[in-house]
Write a structure and sequence with these properties.
Strand content: 15-25%
Radius of gyration: 22 Å
Structural class: alpha+beta
Shape: globular
CATH topology: OB fold (Dihydrolipoamide Acetyltransferase, E2P)
Strand order of the largest sheet: 1-2-3-6-5
Number of domains: 1
Largest sheet: 5 strands, mixed, barrel
């Protein structure tokens, strides 16, 4: 009699760690850090100095812009305009908030932080670029869509339909993925 309950207890003890290991983790909370803009590399990438004094490269989360010329490749239609628009929004020294998204990776394959970038007044720079017609909503198909994807997609459609910014000269702006 005593062996059966002991065997059940040992079996339970053996498999309990597997049960915990297979339980999905609760979504993490978004994190926010302050930073200062050092340099705008292109329409969706910036270099910053974070609150710890470290230099970081940041890819604006949830958007994409046409590429600038690089590595003997020509730039894409709208690439320079997108970079200029971001430089106007984020001049050197601008104080910003870097906001992570629990539904997105922390970094991309190039080691850049993936963050929403907001000005001190709460302006979402990704949304501003989309509304002005220099960026479009983008999310990797291999991961859950970032939290702001639906809003960014709606803003992309509005800007495209209005022919805002680069949409007039580059009707296939969002095909530069």
């Amino acid at each position: 009699m005593a062996i059966a309950p002991l065997r059940a207890l040992l079996t339970l003890a053996a498999f309990a760690p597997l049960t915990v290991a297979c339980t999905p983790l609760a979504p993490t909370e978004a994190t926010t850090d302050t930073a200062a803009v050092d340099y705008v590399l292109d329409g969706d990438t910036i270099e910053v100095t974070d609150s710890e004094g470290e230099n970081k490269r940041v890819r604006l989360l949830g958007i994409n812009t046409p590429e600038l010329p690089h590595d003997d490749e020509p730039g894409q239609c709208g690439g320079e305009a997108a970079a200029e628009q971001l430089r106007a929004l984020l001049p050197e020294g601008t104080a910003i908030e870097l906001i992570s998204d629990p539904q997105a990776d922390d970094e991309d394959r190039y080691g850049r932080l993936l963050r929403y970038v907001e000005l001190e007044d709460g302006t979402d720079t990704g949304a501003a670029l989309i509304a002005a017609g220099y960026a479009y909503a983008w999310a990797p198909s291999s991961e859950p869509a970032p939290t702001r994807t639906a809003d960014y997609e709606a803003a992309t459609a509005t800007a495209r339909d209005a022919g805002a910014g680069s949409w007039r000269a580059c009707p296939d702006l969002d095909q530069s993925k």
